[in-house]
Amino acid sequence: MTNPTTTKRIALITGANKGLGFEIARQLGQQHHTVLVGARDAERGERAAQHLRGEGLDAHFVPLAVTSDASVTAAATLIEERFGRLDVLVNNAGISLDDAPPSQLSFERLIETYDTNVFGVVRVTQALLPLLRRSDRARIVNMGSAMGSLTYTSDPENMRSGILLLAYASSKAALHSVTVQFANELRAEGIKVNVADPGYAPTDLSGGQGFNTIEEGAGPAVRLATLDENGPTATILALEGVIPW
């Protein structure tokens, strides 16, 4: 049982058993956060938490499937009972299922993508907001993408305009809008809500390809999770700086 009055900041990262989520958890743990490893698979989630504990970090597994109301509610209850509050929420869980051009993509692929990338973020954020409101400096970070930037993807001179990913790109654009809506609601409470763009990092989602390392890709999310009171809200932070919606 963890003392709810602990002075260590408590951070939940969804989809944290591997890839970017795991690295974000590691880097926040290295900055003296208690990190909660959210994952659907209990074996993989507990293994990831054990790995982090083996590095001397304060890490705990939290069962969490972002597409399940029951799972999200149970995770919120567990966090409240064990920790009493939440200081950082990183909505990292995401999928990319596009296997056809926009004119041929199935509705099943589209719906499944939105259920995780958009509805899952709203579901988790709404459930954990009461615990975030108990923090004196709550931060919400949603993992977005430059592929969700309408400024970039509508520009025929931008390489991203040639990458046709109806489900993934539109879900990230929707997530960006969700971020702005929460940021506007919570601005007066001092809760900052931003998007982190990890760039093209070698993850399962990118097929193991990428220009940046996993460590670099985690950087924007970690910076947004640790913003001071003068930091921004309702922005997208990438490795190269703030990018347009």
UniProtKB/TrEMBL annotation:
Keywords: NADP, Oxidoreductase. InterPro entries: CBR1-like (IPR045313), NAD(P)-bd_dom_sf (IPR036291), Sc_DH/Rdtase_CS (IPR020904), SDR_fam (IPR002347). Pfam families: adh_short. CDD domains: carb_red_PTCR-like_SDR_c. Belongs to the short-chain dehydrogenases/reductases (SDR) family. This is SDR family oxidoreductase.
